[in-house]
């Protein structure tokens, strides 16, 4: 049975944070969602210390083989999450990983302590694509900032800490090594690639925020390369994601070094994509020798 940092999983496919609303899915489709839950673990949408309404619309825009989003992390905040969402997410038939983000180490610490204290939570994903209000630096773009954040958070919980890496850096492997030095248990990658589009009808930015993050099949080769680099440099297990839409895609990420894979944008097109990818993966995964010879062809 696959496992991640001591969390046992029925298969290797989980969801990418923010791309599958398990509470809404259950409201719409009923308990059938629980009976055939598409993922082996559930990662929550990122929560922040205080509630956020998110960005003004337009917040999503279709692109060739992908989409742009600038949702802006709308969420109920820590208290709202613990009171309203956690009890419902705890009813899911799979381990729960809660994604958290803050703009200072003390605020991150508050989130990790509160979420880590809950028995319903199996692990915590740290979304580090955020500025530190004190230094002005994006934490996940700086190996030293990432290491220092982990040093602050590591003593606060025994639960696995997974660092969600940003792809918007020259050397994601250096950031992964910083996370490892600070005491992270795993990394996940990639988050969305910074990107823009202009609406041809108006000549103005397609997203109200001006720019957003690119996801979907368009980013897959970038994700595979970053995954290779990160797993070669850091000794941590990695959750690979970025444009996975089939078992063949998932097998590619496993061949490149991932321990688990996550399905994101594809779930908008096919809400059952997680189970489909897991079933296809059983058939698609190459024998070890084949996977290595495929990588040697470069
Ligand atoms: C609409 C949307 C919302 C997202 N929200 C979050 C989020 O709250 N936290 C996070 O860490 N990543 C978020 N992501 C990034 C995904 O988790 C994932 O890293 C990225 O989309 C790449 O995977 P994909 O190409 O399979 O979608 C979001 C992506 C999309 C498309």
Distance between the termini: 32 Å
Largest sheet: 8 strands, parallel
CATH class: Alpha Beta
Enter the CATH topology name.
TIM Barrel
Give the second-level CATH assignment, the architecture: Alpha-Beta Barrel
Bound molecules: flavin mononucleotide
Instruction: Count the E strands.
Output: 16
> Which whole number gives the mean pLDDT?
95
Shape designation: globular
- Weakly predicted, low-confidence segments: none
Q: Figure out the total of helices.
A: 11
Radius of gyration: 18 Å
Instruction: Estimate the helix proportion, in percent.
Output: 25-40%
Order of helices and strands: EEEHHEEEHEHEHEHEEEEEHEHEHHH
**Strand arrangement in the largest pleated sheet:** 3-16-15-10-9-8-7-4
Structural notes for this entry:
The chain has 298 residues and is an alpha/beta fold. It has one domain (3-296): Aldolase class I (TIM Barrel). The protein is built from eleven helices and 16 strands. The protein has helices at residues 22-29, 32-35, 77-89, 105-116, 143-153, 172-182, 220-233, 247-255, 266-269, 273-284, 288-296, and strands at 3-4, 7-8, 13-15, 42-43, 60-63, 66-69, 96-100, 123-127, 161-164, 186-189, 193-195, 198-199, 204-205, 212-215, 238-241, 260-263. The strands form four sheets. An eight-stranded parallel beta sheet has the order 3-16-15-10-9-8-7-4. A hairpin with a 2-residue loop joins β1 and β2 (7-8). α5 (143-153) packs parallel to α6 (172-182) and α6 packs across α7 (220-233). The two termini are 32 Å apart. Flavin mononucleotide is lined by residues 16-19, 45-46, 69, 71, 73, 99, 127, 164, 190-192, 215-216, 219, 241-244, 263-265. The site of flavin mononucleotide has 25 residues, from loops.
């Amino acid at each position: 049975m696959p496992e991640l940092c001591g969390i046992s999983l029925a298969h290797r496919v989980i969801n990418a944070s923010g791309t599958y609303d398990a509470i809404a899915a259950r409201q719409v489709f009923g308990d059938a969602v629980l009976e055939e839950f598409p993922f082996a673990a559930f990662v929550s949408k990122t929560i922040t210390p205080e509630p956020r309404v998110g960005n003004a619309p337009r917040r999503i825009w279709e692109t060739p083989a992908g989409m742009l989003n600038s949702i802006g992390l709308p969420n109920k905040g820590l208290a709202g999450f613990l009171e309203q969402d956690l009890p419902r997410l705890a009813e899911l038939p799979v381990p729960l990983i809660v994604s958290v983000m803050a703009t200072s180490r003390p605020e991150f610490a508050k989130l990790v302590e509160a979420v880590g204290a809950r028995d319903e939570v199996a692990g915590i994903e740290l979304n580090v694509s955020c500025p530190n209000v004190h230094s002005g630096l994006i934490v996940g773009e700086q190996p030293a900032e990432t290491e220092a954040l982990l040093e602050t958070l590591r003593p606060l919980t025994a639960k696995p800490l997974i660092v969600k890496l940003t792809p918007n850096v020259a050397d994601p492997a250096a950031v992964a090594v910083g996370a490892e030095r600070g005491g992270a248990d795993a990394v996940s990658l990639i988050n969305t690639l910074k990107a823009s589009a202009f609406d041809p009808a108006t000549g103005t930015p397609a997203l109200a925020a001006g720019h957003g993050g690119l996801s979907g099949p368009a980013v897959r080769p970038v994700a595979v390369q970053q995954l290779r680099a990160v797993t070669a440099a850091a000794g941590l297990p990695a959750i690979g994601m970025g444009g996975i839409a089939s078992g063949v895609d998932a097998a590619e990420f496993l061949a490149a070094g991932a321990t688990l894979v996550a399905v994101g944008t594809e779930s908008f097109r096919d809400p059952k994509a997680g189970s489909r990818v897991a079933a296809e993966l059983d058939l698609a995964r190459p024998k070890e020798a084949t996977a290595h010879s495929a990588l040697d062809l470069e």
